[in-house]
Amino acid sequence: MLTASVQAADGCAVARIGAVGGSMTAADDGRRVRDRRGSIAMCALVALVALAGCAGTSDPAAAPSPTPVTPAEGSVPATAAEVLAGIAELGLGEAELIAYLRERAASEGPVTLYTISGAEDTQAWVEVFRTEFPEVDLRFVALGNDEVVERVTAEARAGRQVVDVIQSTAPPLAALINEGLLAPHSGALVPEGLPERYVGTHEVTHRIAPVVIPRFASVPAEDAPQGWDDFLEPEHAGCVFSVAPTWVTALVDERGEDGAAAWFEGFLANGGTMAQSSGAQLRRLLAGEIDCVVQSNAHTLRRLVVEDGAPLDWVIPTRSYATATSVAVHRDTPRTHAAALVALWLASPSGAQVIADLGDLPTHPDVMLTDERLRPWLDPSSPESQRTAIIDMERSIEVEQIVFRLIETYVTPNLIAE
Amino acid sequence: MRRTRTELVLALALGALLVYLIVVPVSTIVWGSLGTTPTGIPGPRTLAHYRTALSAPTFVGSIRTTIAFAGGVTVVATLLGGYLAWVTERTDAPGRRLVYLLVLVPIVVPGILTTIAWILVLHERIGIANGLLAAIGASRPRFDAYTLPAMVWVEGFDSLTLPFLLIAAALRTMDPAVEEASVLSGASTSRTAFRITLPLVLPAVSAAALLVFVRAIGSFAVPAAMGLPGGVRVLATEVFLAARRFPSDSNLAAAYAVLHLALAAVVLALHQRITRHGDRFVTIGARVAHNGRIALRRTRTVHAASALAILGVAVVLPLVVIVVSSLLPRPMPPTELDPSLFTLRRYAWALESVVARRALVNNVVVGGLASVVTVVIAAIVAWVSTRSRLRWRRLLDILATAPIALPGTVLGLALLWWYLIVPLPIYATRWLVGIAFVTAFLPYAVRAAAALLGQLSPALEEASAMSGAGWSRTFARIVLPLVAPGLIAAWLYVVARTFTSLALPALLAGPGGEMLPSVVYDLYESARYSELNALGVLMIGGMLAIAGLARLSAILADRWSGLVHDPSTSGERGATPTGIARQERTAE
Question: A176: closest CA among A402, A326, A330, A65?
């Protein structure tokens, strides 16, 4: 009898095909041999499928490292947090720090980023990064907000970590901080000149997106809804909110749990609906399916207006908030220097310029925005900036449970998938 | 005795493989649904998630809607697919080749593109259909894209290929002499079709209908894009929302997935019961070499026009919308369409995009290899279940067909969790997507292979065995060459599905492992609809070109071998004693 068995050895599956209990001898006739060939072929197929798994190890992009972090210097502590703390203690300037990180990152192998940005957008800045740091092999997986939390958490619990650095908005990162999965950076990731408001304990914000209300260019700005309460008025009935946990956090931040719940009830009673994908809602708006969308994807909106000539414009609400996209290093990354380099570069003037070129709002004050209409928004003294709440990590963590309750009660049952 | 032992070894090896591919992930989901901790983490078991799912205010409604949706889709797809199969297989209506070509197109069109195209056609305010009605004086809109009937319409059209192929195969194997006898007795064409033809192929029709029903239960693109905005929620969208909720609750998502699976499994079990008896029925004419299409006479043109009209609406109309959308610089209302804005800029983008190129390479490599593995496994499963004398051989067939009841989201979650737990370095590699493809598309390949083998006389294999050839030699030298054209067609079908299957690559891809469906989803989420449509058109064109080349090579191979006589060109059927021509067209 022939068997095919698969066993794990040193992290790699080994397929073994063997003859067990058979009594085939040279005297057996040819037909029996041929019959057995068929069996062997089948068993080989089974083994082939098992070996396909082994083939995965030849894919350097995805193979999780089985070994714990190996610090570049023998005396440096092993955890990412301690490595980052050690780097911070060196007190290097930005240029020296980048040189220090890139020297050590080169030997750490491919570094993997989980990002909530789309694949096309991420690919654009990753290509610039690779040009600047050809010795660092940066790869990415584009995921949704919820998928980032799910996958990072699942990997950590299963001990199969692939991710090294995470780019997401505040609530998902807050959830990961609560799980203890992000390494505190101790200031190692903060580029020179980055305003304090964009620096958290575990993450550094490199991109922000204001909430905007797209409107057709032919509609005067004053006729568009201007703030939360306008969406409860009959003339703005049926508006679509592109839901992100961030804006629920903003609502709670401004009105508390009861006030936020009252707003939700009023919004739904006014025929409002909630959607996941702001991009999909912009398509519906442009196609004329809906008249009103509230969303924080200024980047997509700007692309549609500036590059595609869409007859749209936008207003920044009277009481606004911003979704901050931050970057953080995973607690268990064995590639701390490479991960830190990615995080630092994204928030630095070089990275910020690429972000701005892509049409987003970077947080570094040395970088000029490409879109003048959004420029005042980043100036701390401007009225737009004054009336805007940036949802930072600390606040997200504080109100996390309230936000979860509101999402469970009002968002999930009324969500449309697009 | 020797043969039985070979069969036993084959069956055991296949059984182990299928258990690993199918039972293990399903068990992972079931286990996860009972857990209080994320899958793979030890913790107490509970039924609380089922209680939560069953007591959700939307749950009962979503079950009812799911059944109504799947039932409606089944009726639309089976009626239309059956009618088209009858026209192409049993009548002398002109344009049958064109019907054959058009009816296969939905396989290669990503569902999300078709759905968006139909929204633009059926939308209450901006839709083309209501615009046309208004132009001829209708006082109010008659169509609304975000309703259950519209969902049934779109999914029904998108699903008609499957019943077409299954019913066409049954009609092809039917003995036409009984129809001729009916006609000679004075019965009309319609009376013959309903009183003679339909009862003969009823088991195949029922089986096709149940498969459509199962697929509709798992359908996602239409319920998500058309159902949710209109408040029409089905089980597939409940699973999706449970899986995508924030904060995530994977155990609750698993409970929804198991309930979804249970509903699909009941229908699938019914299907297995019907096909167990139906196979005997529909193979009546497998050995018959007979010439016989129903001469429609005056109604030839009517039926040809009807068939083409159905496909014009179901297939060509959404394709035209997709192509036009790909030429626009941005989404715009159909009523404001301005041809002067047409541009090929999006095609240039699609050809230059680094991500799209990487995804294409991944798709070709992983999808191509997975399709080969799928078809090879399917051929052997089909051989064991149709040829072996093992008492439990049908179990393999049932096992291999079971994944048809697994919605992509459920299978994706199951594999994600399983490969996080097991110490195999497959998680986050592109091979995980490959394994998912094999599991997901095995049922279709098995059904195609079983149909092919069902029409192949066992006498040939018996002759080979009597001449001293072993199983492997007989399988490789006799069986495979005879069913090769059909298996190539099955391979193409699986390849096409790997290019259009959205959920699996989106859930399972690792770094650098994007596939074209992931890119399609990314473009959809980023409001890059012109790029999305341009990429879609290129994908459709590429798949049709591959299918055309495969078809051409099959024809050339047939001519070279001189064995095959194509009945569609001569109007004759089964001109060869082994029925090879029928096999070729079965999987076409």
Answer: A330
